Each structure stands twice: as structure tokens, then as C-alpha cells.
Amino acid sequence: MSDTVTVVVQRVMPATPEVVFDEWLDPEALREWMCPHPVRVVEVAVETRVGGTVRFDVENSGARVLISGQFLAIERPRLLRFTWSNSDWEDPTQASVVNVTFEPVGSEETLMSIEHSLLPPAEFESFHTGWIATFDQLAGKLAH
């Protein structure tokens, strides 16, 4: 396998770990905040069990892209781990791994951290800025 990179992003979210965790497993919620705008999530499918699938059909500048993966760990409300493959990558069979952790901060906030590993090096900047924007969108949704 060629060299890979890891993107790490953290943000304090204005909700409890349970609420923030559940946003990741709710297809309607994911449609609202997953993927940095103007990328649009067209369809979402989530099979909430270890071994279950997660799938995002997204539209980016008129092109359709399929993001798919499989849950490796679901430990509510502390950890989600899943694979991530992108039909738009040079090698669409390459799978990266997303780890999302949720730590309580006080009684009403959560430190949400993402570590997205095994990414193709050419994707680092796109995913780094993309996850920051996605976290901003989720924080905005939770604040309302």
C-alpha cells in the first residue's frame, strides 16, 4: 500500500455526548450537516450495528459521488469507528478509517474528535478543511 495520511479535527459541541453521538446515526440529521456545503447529501443509509453499512450519495458540482463504509465499532455515547471509501478516488477500492470520539465537557457540552486515517496523501487538505466545515455545520445545527 502506498503512503497514507491522517486528518485529526476536534471541536467542542453545544450538546451532551448522547445527543452528538446520535446525530451520527440519524439519516435525516446526517443529510443536513454531513459534508461541507455546497456539497449536498442526496441520500443516506445507515445500518446501525457492527458490520452494518453506512452510505452517503453526495452531489458535488453536478457530479455524483458515492461514499460507503462499514461500522467497526459502535459504543454509545463514546465511540464510532467505520471504514470510508470514495468512488471518486484514484483507487475507489481503498478504504480509510474514521474514528469519532465523544467526551463530556461539563454537563452540556461534548469534545468531539475525529481521526480519519489511511487517506490518500492527495486528499489531506480536502478532508482537513472538509471535516472542519462539517463540524461547524453540526455545531450550528446543535446550537439551534
Automatic annotation (TrEMBL):
Originating species: Mycolicibacterium helvum
Family of the protein in this entry: Belongs to the AHA1 family.
Transmembrane segments: none
Gene3D superfamilies: 3.30.530.20
Annotated ranges, domain Activator of Hsp90 ATPase homologue 1/2-like C-terminal: 15-140
SUPFAM superfamilies: Bet v1-like
Protein name, UniProt field: Activator of Hsp90 ATPase homologue 1/2-like C-terminal domain-containing protein
InterPro entries: ASHA1/2-like_C, START-like_dom_sf
